[in-house]
Amino acid sequence: MPDTTASVRFLGDWRQVQQGAIERGGRIRIEYETQRLRSCFMPWRGAEFGDITAQIRFYPRGELVAGSVVAPVRDRENPPGMVVGHVSAPLEVVVPSDATQAEIWFHNFSQTTSRCDAWDSRFGDNYWFDVGGPSPRVPRQPVSLRRGSATRADMVNALEQRASKVNVFPFPPGGGPRVGTNLQTTLDVTAWVKDTTYGANAWIDVHVFDSADELAHAQTLTLSYIGFGPSFRYAFSGIVFQGSTATPGSVQPRPDARTVQYRLYYEAYYQLFTDGILHQLELPEDAVVR
User: Fold this and answer.
1) How far apart are CA 269 and CA 156, in angstroms?
2) What's the pLDDT tens digit per position in 90-134?
3) Which residue among 57, 76, 131, 225 sits deepest, i.e. has the most Cβ atoms within 10 Å of its Cβ?
């Protein structure tokens, strides 16, 4: 996959300037000048409250990635100091290996004694960019949508997600390099639901694919209710694939897990809801992790 980074600058005079081609497997760097969207930064008792987030949706799967494009400025006279302003800060995200287009918009918001929301979305049309590079990688047996599920992003959404591949073989007690390999792929997912009730269930259907995009493993995993917060939340954190293991004189090869896909579901009020997104996360090759 390419090791490339394209930048898109959203300037204060409402121009957009792109440098470099956005490529699958590369990165996209978003630079946003805050004067475009400052109406919801609110002063309160000497501090400034608010944030600007970039929302990036990659097609055709519809995966949504979000992150802040500002950094806080703190009062230096009283470290660590309260936040007295905000400045532009670049956001970099990985471009999925199957993406063909990227749709971008921005959200400025704050919450003090009242709520404020403002958008930079080109009057609802958003900002669109083509994605090129190597041919799109599409697994042959993607996670299918369950029959009877209703796509309702207002009922269930993935708040956080992360897939990792680690070598958990222990180091020798006296120090030195590992003498074996135990590769495990882990997945962490936190989901938001609008509301919950007794008997509600949340789960994910998970597929793991190898370097040839062939299905290596499939399972359904239950998300546990993790209580209140800013929203009702369910979560899963654990191993989704056991990779190769090796000790001196013994090797148990397994497929090289390179991609994790999942679909999120929430069952409540005798209905099955989903966010409708085929979530996909890339993994490094085994040789890099060892």
Assistant:
1) 13
2) 999 999 999 999 999 999 999 888 899 999 999 999 999 999 999
3) 131
Question: How many Å apart are CA 100 and CA 132, to the nearest integer?
Answer: 7
Model confidence at 81: pLDDT above 90: no
Dihedral angle, C-alpha 154, 127, 13, 91, nearest 10 °: 70
Q: Domain 150-289 maps to which CATH number in 3.30.70.20, 2.60.40.2440, 3.40.50.360, 1.10.1240.10?
A: 2.60.40.2440
Give the pair of three-digit tokens for residue 208: 């793991």
Q: How far apart are CA 260 and CA 216, in angstroms?
A: 10
d(CA 203, CA 221): 6
In this predicted structure, the answer to whether residue 78 has a pLDDT above a threshold of 70 is: no
Closest C-alpha among 212, 71, 90, 68 to residue 140: 212
Confidence of residue 44 (pLDDT cuts 50, 70, 90): confident
Q: Where are the domains of the chain?
A: 5-130, 150-289
Residue 184 CB neighbours (<10 A): 19
The residue type found at 228 is F
Distance in angstroms (rounded) separating the CA atoms of residues 278 and 96: 12
